[in-house]
Amino acid sequence: MIKVKTGVRLGLIRSIMIMPYIGFGNDKEIYFLVRVLKDRNIGNAQGEDGAWHNFKKMYKRFSSWKIPNVKVKAVFQGSEQIAITDEEGYAEFHIPIPEGFRPTQNWEIVQLELIDKVRPRQGKVTAFNKIFMPLNHLEYGIISDIDDTIVPTGATRLWEMLKTTFFGNAYSRIPFPGVAAFYKALEKGRDDIKSNPLFYVSSSPWNLYDFLMEFMDVHQIPKGPLMLRDIGLSRDHLIAGSHFDHKLTQVEKIFSFFSDIPFILIGDSGQHDPEIYLQVIKDFPGRVKMIYIRDVKADRIQQVEDIRLEMKQLGVSMLLVKDTMEAARHALSKGWILDQDLKDIGISKQEDEQSG
Q: For the Phosphatidate phosphatase APP1 catalytic domain, which residue ranges apply (predicted)?
């Protein structure tokens, strides 16, 4: 691969961008990642975009020119920290909470700036990132898979997954009916305040981050930090590990970061989410409130049932559901969402089915 300096000299790298990934904080620190790249100039999707147009945008995402070994400065509430990008262009930040700072809103802002000069006449390269900060009225957290949990992708069928990934866009990818309304209800909980944090953990690569964020925005799915996976050999060598190891590591990182709240875990039966969540129950006893698994793979019924029984012995229930309403009705029966929200989920599910 051509080195960055050569790319600059040949005029192949004309502008630089900082790609921020939504982070989260507790009473001790905030945590987030950024990536420094050649500016891909992808732009937002349009509903009328065709397959070839979508493919060209996706190609840009996966052919990103990473900028290694450069300094990025982050400023949060007056505190500064500088991190150096690794060989894949990533930089990781753990910024201590400034003394006396108390969040008054769920989302705080971090200012970002590239310190090093990569190309002549570069100018200032800046960005900002959003950080989820918990307030006092958290009831529980929600951790959800994405592929075949929120949106059908055919993740267990390679060609179908590649086709939907590379030739679709945020408008053409349609979530399972009722998902957005259900996640909004969980976000509000019983106190009707949008404060319960949502985290999305997936084995999709970081290259799809902006695509997935746009997808959530288009379909009004509540925003939250995305914990994705690198397709290079850095960032903890995640590509060398399995789907299981990656997701387990990320889920347990969230559990450790927010150590004083229980979690509802949502996944599907197709890619070993039940096995991953079983291990979480064992590693964090008493912390899992409920597990909802979307049934997408018939040949794993017995395996999933065996895991459900083992979870039950450990004091945690797992519900295998065919659609969103099953999970929503159960959540209402447990007092985790409001009566009106169940009605809204039902209406939303019908509208989604009609429009889909």
A: 140-295
How many residues in the chain?
Answer: 356
3-state secondary structure 109-135: EEEEEECCCCCCCCCCCEEEEEEECCC
Q: Which of 132, 160, 182 is a domain's end point?
A: 132
Arithmetic mean of pLDDT, 259-273: 93
Domain that holds residue 108: 4-132
If asked whether residues 149 and 214 sit together in one domain, one would say yes
pLDDT, tens digit (0-9, with 9 covering 90-100), for 247-264: 999 999 999 999 999 999
From the CB of residue 210, how many other CB atoms can be counted at a distance below 10 Å?
17
* pLDDT more than 70, % of the chain: 87
Measured CA to CA, the distance from residue 190 to residue 187 in angstroms comes to: 9
Does residue 85 sit in the same domain as residue 145? no
Q: Reduced to 3 states, what is the DSSP secondary structure of residue 271?
A: coil
Rg (CA), the chain: 21
**To 10 degrees, the CA torsion angle through 328, 330, 334, 340?**
30
The sheet carrying 198-205 orders its strands as: 226-229, 198-205, 141-144, 263-268, 288-294, 318-321
The answer to whether the beta carbons of residues 156 and 149 sit under 8 Å apart is no
79's tokens: 């505190």
Residues with Cβ within 8 Å of residue 217, at least 6 apart in sequence:
170, 223
For strand 318-321 and strand 107-114, is the pairing parallel, antiparallel, or unpaired?
A: unpaired
